[in-house]
Design goal:
The protein is of the alpha+beta class and 84 residues long. The protein has five helices and three strands; from the N terminus they run ααβααββα. Helix 1 packs antiparallel against helix 4.
Amino acid sequence: MKDVWDALVDSTRREILKLLKKRDMSAGEIFNYFDITKPSLSHHLSILKEANLVEYKKRGQSIIYSLNLKGLNEVSDYLRWLRK
């Protein structure tokens, strides 16, 4: 669970999750929304993947990122448990 909180503490990663909530996107599409370097975006995406918040699939030569609902449900379940 520590990886999840480390991932969510960063505003850029939270913004990436908001974008992916709207639709699946390639790294290039995500990159267009930020004023960061491509290596920095790659780092953010890696952290989100390690935290199980984002998943990806290869589509041709592109990698398409999407929200990992299972990972998000784990976070939601944990927060619900804390509130009880």
